Amino acid sequence: MQISTSSTVDQVGIEERAAALSKRSIKKQTKIEGIKLAISMIDLTTLEGKDSPGKVQALCQKAIHPLEGNSSVPSVAAVCVYPNMVSVAKKALKGTNVKVASVATGFPSGLTPLPIKIEETKRVVEMGADEVDMVIDRGAFLAGEYQKVSDEIAQVKEACGKSHLKVILETGELETYDNVRKASFLAMQAGADFIKTSTGKAAVNATLPVTLVMLEAIRDYWYQTGKMVGMKPAGGIRTSKQALQYLVVVKETLGDRWLSNDWFRFGASTLTNDLLMQLTKEATGRYQSLDYFTID
Asked: Of these residues, 62, 99, 196, 274, which one is catalytic?
């Protein structure tokens, strides 16, 4: 099937719509529900050179029980780690609904040979990764080598087996909204289960306008194929206010079906604490100090 990408994006229109949606007012009870939903959508992430088994184990405990003593607060969706921490996370999360995600394919540059990308993907799946976050070769994409990028995604998807594949576009390096839309379609046609904005390691990460471009691509792909694809903005989303703005954009663009961690995720390391602080404030009328929450 030939999929139309409708490649030209109205930059002014996208930015104006994103700005308008970000100003939507939200009532208190809806805000509380939205904060809990956002918590359930988080891929709690640690991707640092100093990561250790102890740090990952502590992060997994927070993923299972984000707010100790409050059973109404849901677990997060997944814990995202480097490949050598997958087995640690898998053991710590055994018996829970929290998934293990691993970056792969030469994260964050994507500049390793394809056989190494395939091997790394197979290894993290063998170690227990439920989800694989791969990164595309932006240099190849910007050089117009679309078939090369598509083939790599398809082969990594095959190497994932039953594990889900999230394809990171690194939108801050794609230069234009038109490129973001084209890359989104390319990834979806090649087999992505999710498309993701960023590695969190670039100078520019997730933004509302870029996320809106990608959500509209998902919508149009769904209209043309009937296939649902998930979305994951990552990097730079730090506050409850921002998270709720993203949820509004998802609802208004894709509808309630995508308001689930099966189809929408936040890639975040610091967002969780702000969500917990805001949730406590809405329930008690008082902010809790950050001292009450673990530093991830």
From this structure: 196
Instruction: Tell me how far apart the alpha carbons of residues 170 and 159 are, in angstroms, rounded to a whole number.
Output: 22
Structure confidence by residue, pLDDT tens digits, 191-232? 999 999 999 999 889 999 999 999 999 999 999 999 999 999
CATH number at residue 60: 3.20.20.70
Residue 141 lies in a domain: yes
Mark whether 91 is an active-site residue: no
Which residue among 133, 137, 193, 220 is the active-site one?
A: 133
Tell me if 13 is assigned to some domain.
no
pTM (two decimals): 0.93
Q: In the annotation, is 196 catalytic? A: yes
Q: For residue 154, what are the contacts with CB-CB under 8 A and spacing of at least 6?
A: 190, 191
Q: Is 133 a catalytic residue?
A: yes
